[in-house]
Amino acid sequence: MDLATIVGLVAGAIIFSLVAILGGNVVIFVSMQSALVVLGGTLAGVMISYTFQDLKNIPNLLRVSLQNDNMESEHVIENLVNFAEKARREGLLALEDDAAEMDDEFLQKGIQLVVDGTDPELVKNILETKLTFLAERHAKGRGIFATMGQLAPAFGMIGTLIGLVQMLSQLDDPNQLGSGMAVALITTLYGALLANWIFIPLAKNLETQSNHEIHVKEVIIEGILSIQAGENPRIVREKLHAFLSEEEKEVVEARINETGEVGAVENAS
C-alpha cells in the first residue's frame, strides 16, 4: 500500500472534520442538495467527456493510486545485469526459461524477442511502441481524475448560483435568507474540497506513478539491447546506473559494500 496517499486522505478528512466541529455546528456543513449538484454534475460531465469503457477503469485507477507495486529501478538493473552475466556464460538461449518465469510482461516480452533472434532495431521499435501506448493509456486514466478536478469547482459554482436564485425568490421571507445563503456557499465548498483534496491529487499521484513506470521500462529497453549486443556485464551495469539518481546509486553502493554481493539489492525492499 502507498502509505503517503492513505495518510494524506485520512489527514485531510481529520482536518476538515475538526474545523467543522470547532465551528460549533457540524450539521450546517451537510447539504444533500449541494452534494447532488456537485457529485451528480461532475459525474455527468465526465460521462460526456469519456466513453463507458474508460470509466469502467476508475476502480482499477483508484487501486493503483493506493498501492505501490512499481519495481525500483535499481532492482530491475541488477536483474538485467544477472541476465547479462548468464547470457555471456551460456548464450542468449539460456534466458528462455527465465523469460517464462517473469512477472513483468514488458521485460518478459523483451527477453523473448532477444531469445528468438529478432533484429535489434526491431526489438527496440517493438518495445518503444509498447511503451508509447502504455503512456497514452496512463494519460487517459489520470485525465479522468484531472477532468473531475476541473468540473467539481465549476459545478460548485453552478450550485451556488442555483441556491442564490432560490434565495432571491424568497425575499419576502427574511428568515430564509441566511439558510439559503449558507446552502449556496456550501455547494462551492463541496466543489473546491473534492477537487483539491481528492480529484487533482489523485491525478497527480497517477502521473507520478506513470512516470516512474515509464522510467523503469526505459531502463529495461536499454538493458535488453545491451544484453543482445553481448556487452560485458560490468559495462551493462555502468550504462544502466546512468538512469539512477545519485541517491539511488548511493543505496546500491552501500548494499554492495555491506554484503559484497551485487544481487543483495533485490532483498532490500
Q: Strand share of the residues?
A: under 5%
Mean pLDDT: 85
Shape: elongated
| Tally of discrete structural domains | 2
Q: In angstroms, what separates the terminal alpha carbons? A: 13 Å
Uncertain residue segments: 259-269
Write down the oligomeric state. single chain
| Helical amount | over 70%
**Helix count from the secondary structure assignment:** 11
Helix/strand structural class: mainly alpha
Largest beta-sheet characterization? none
Radius of gyration: 26 Å
How do the SSEs run, as a string of H and E? HHHHHHHHHHH
Number of strands: 0
Summarize this structure briefly:
The protein has 11 helices and no strands.
What does this structure look like?
The protein is mostly helical. The chain folds into 2 domains: 1-30; 31-72 and 123-267, no CATH class. The chain is 78% helix and 0% strand. It has 11 helices and no strands. The chain has helices at residues 3-22, 32-49, 52-55, 58-66, 73-90, 96-100, 105-115, 120-168, 175-228, 233-241, 246-259. Helix 9 runs antiparallel to helix 10 (233-241).
Using brief descriptors, characterize the structure shown.
MotA-like, MotA_ExbB_proton_chnl, mainly alpha, 269 residues, transmembrane helix, disordered C terminus, 78% helix, 2 domains, cell membrane, transport
